[in-house]
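GntR family transcriptional regulator
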Amino acid sequence: MIDRHSDELVWKQLANSLRQQIESGEITRTLPAERYLRETYKVSASTVSKAMGLLAEEGLIVRLTGLGTFVKDPARHRKTE
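Structure:
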């Protein structure tokens, strides 16, 4: 979850959490709605937007207006042990 006492910015913590969930296979295709993320992580809309923007810049996700946010290439991003 989010550590509000951490030196790391909240939106980066959220991005890291989502990235880890994608890499572990916990999120395999569709990311939760932004509203769900705001309520679950107790963060603002701008925090969610910045986190999603970073993941999109990294090529991890793709945001399709009116359709949702998706893992860009699920098999490529899943870490295997």
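The mean pLDDT is 92.
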